[in-house]
Design brief:
It is a single chain. The chain has one domain: OMPT-like (Lipocalin, Beta Barrel), CATH 2.40.128.90. It is 8% helix and 70% strand. The protein has one helix and eleven strands. The protein has one helix at 3-27; strands at residues 37-54, 62-86, 91-101, 105-113, 117-145, 150-175, 191-217, 222-242, 254-274, 277-297, 305-326. Strands 1, 2, 3, 4, 5, 6, 7, 8, 9, 10 and 11 form an eleven-stranded antiparallel sheet that branches. The longest helix is centred in the N-terminal third of the chain and has 25 residues, at 3-27.
Length: 327
């Protein structure tokens, strides 16, 4: 299936979904209460993981995968802001923004020769830079649980997710220079370029998502909450700058494009201090993965070359906590 026909199927499916939502909302009894606004502020104490691999085995001496890179940060504290605005008693819009600095983690870079022999493995520290995301959704309430116990909402919208990693220094963990003729690496156990930025990686995901949110009240003050969103199509734009490679251009050295799928999920509990003020605690996961893509090499001299992108995945997960005003 081509990307155009795949996207067309998604648009058609989305139209059918929203038609069903509109019909379901229309069939629900009208809620005459004044439309509400919910404003939330909190944190997402998360761990991030971006990994990719490509296949350049068409070049003699190289393996499949040829390179595998894993960027992993630890304990990134995201500031998360959200607003839910009721357009009518049954239709709402929701905007969610999150941003954070990244100042800790590790890059592992593995290179392979033919026969999947490890040619080189290096580690670099991640000392920057940051990430941010925005979710813009439109949804409707399709179910009110009996006795004011809760609700079921459905929604659809757009997500933009940006992550940038800066890796510094190079620690050579393994080196087998005989694996790829004409290529060399530093002896295992040596370090170089300490404190110097060696790689900058920038990842952008543009995603369409559909999902559902629900809350069920166990008591007047305490409730369970959950949101699940499926991403049927996500477009990747990734760039790598290898600052120490004189044979590669610097912006970018490698570029990657592709399309794939993903999912978002939140689960947690809410405690109502008053009817207008609540505290939330939970766990959140964001995940995107490429189904088909290409990596392009940008040399200083000569023409660009493209190879299959065999893997590209972004994952972020961790605990959430926040406060919500309802009025």
């Amino acid at each position: 299936m081509t990307l155009r026909s795949y996207a067309g199927s998604i648009v058609l499916g989305s139209a059918l979904l929203f038609g069903f939502v509109t019909l379901a909302v229309a069939q629900e009894p009208s809620d005459e209460r004044r439309p509400q606004i919910e404003l939330s502020a909190g944190t997402w104490i998360s761990v991030g993981d971006t990994r990719w691999a490509h296949n350049a085995s068409s070049v003699p001496g190289l393996g499949n995968p040829t390179s595998k890179l894993i960027y992993k940060d630890v304990g990134t504290n995201v500031i998360d802001l959200a607003g839910k605005f009721w357009i009518s008693p049954k239709i709402f819009g929701k905007l969610n923004l999150g941003f954070a600095n990244i100042g800790g983690g590790r890059l592992t870079d593995d290179d392979y020769g033919s026969g999947q022999q490890l040619f080189s493995q290096t580690n670099s520290d991640i000392n920057g830079n940051g990430m941010w995301y925005v979710n813009a959704d439109l949804g409707g309430r399709v179910k009110e649980f009996p006795h004011n116990r809760g609700y079921l909402d459905v929604f659809g919208g757009y997500q933009y997710w940006h992550t940038e990693y800066q890796a510094v220094g190079v620690a050579q963990i393994a080196c087998n220079p005989g694996v790829i003729p004409g290529f060399t690496c530093q002896p295992a156990g040596t370090s170089s370029n300490q404190g110097q930025t060696v790689i900058t990686n920038t990842t952008d995901w543009h995603s369409f998502r559909v999902g559902a949110s629900s809350e069920y009240r166990l008591t007047r003050r305490f409730s369970l909450r959950g949101t699940v969103a499926f991403i049927p199509i996500s477009l990747l734009d990734n760039k790598d700058i290898h600052h120490l490679r004189p044979d590669l251009k610097q912006n970018p050295s490698f570029s990657m494009t592709g399309y794939g799928i993903g999912a978002d999920a939140d689960a947690g509990v809410r405690f109502m201090f008053t009817k207008n003020f609540a505290a939330d605690v939970g766990y959140r996961v964001y995940w995107n993965q490429v189904l088909s893509g290409n990596l392009t090499v940008h040399p200083v001299t000569g023409s660009t070359e493209s190879f299959p992108l065999t893997q590209f995945q972004s994952l972020r997960h961790g605990l959430t906590a926040g406060l919500t005003l309802i009025f």
